[in-house]
Amino acid sequence: MDKIEGTTATGLTTSRTVMDVHPYNLGFEVKTDQKGDGIGSSDKSPINAAITQALRNTSGFINYCFEKLRWTNTNQQLIYRFIPVIFTTANLWVSDVDIGKSNLSDGKLPNDLVNAKKVDWIWFNQNRPDTLSPDLFLLGKQNYPVSYEYYKFLRSVAIVGSSGVESFLTKDYPSYLQNTDK
């Protein structure tokens, strides 16, 4: 089961375990001397720039979708789910190393603790500032399925490498979220 984050019928973020993968909290860009690596670099990390863009676009799309609901009197329950995704040509590598075991004087980890494996896609947790949050409070008081602080400040974003597009897009996220929204 993967770790998945979705948005409930009220537009709020929830995070659940589906398919044995947990979201990662630290992301590092590693450059090589290969052609095209490092081109277009700026002071801002490409990971952070891509996540900011994905969250900004998701927030804007959520606001767009809910605009009609703000002015519509309907008793019909509508369900919307939003999953921010970054598609990249980068190679994605993960490690389950415990950085708490690093040497306190130099920050280095013992070589035998460091392991890495290449993956097709990951879930990545990112802090989300107010400016990248959707404006859902105009919908009135909601029943939050997760803590307000979690919803307000943390968001999981899928990062999908070119080799993982098919496997990511063929997961049955709507059925999973429908079964867990209850």
Task: Describe, in plain words, how this protein is organized in 3D.
Helices cover 25% and strands 19% of the residues. By secondary structure, the chain is α+β, with helices and mostly antiparallel strands. The strands form three sheets. Strands 3-7-6 form a three-stranded mixed beta sheet. Strands 1-2 form a two-stranded antiparallel sheet. It is elongated, with a radius of gyration of 19 Å. It starts with a strand and ends with a helix. Mean pLDDT is 70; it is low at 1-20 and 137-146.
Topology:
Blueprint: E1 3-7, E2 13-17, H1 46-71, E3 85-88, E4 92-94, E5 117-119, E6 121-127, H2 148-153, E7 154-161, H3 165-169, H4 173-180
Brief descriptors of the model:
182 residues, alpha+beta, two-stranded antiparallel sheet, 4 helices, elongated, disordered N terminus
Query: What's the helical proportion of residues?
Result: 10-25%
Taken together, the total number of domains comes to 1
* Outline: elongated
Largest sheet: 3 strands, mixed
Coarse structural class: alpha+beta
Report, as a whole number of angstroms, the end-to-end distance: 19 Å
Helical run tally:
4
Q: Determine the strand fraction and express it as a percent band.
A: 15-25%
Low-confidence stretches: 1-20, 137-146
Indicate the radius of gyration in whole angstroms. 19 Å
N-to-C series of helices and strands: EEHEEEEHEHH
Short description:
This protein is α+β, with helices and mostly antiparallel strands.
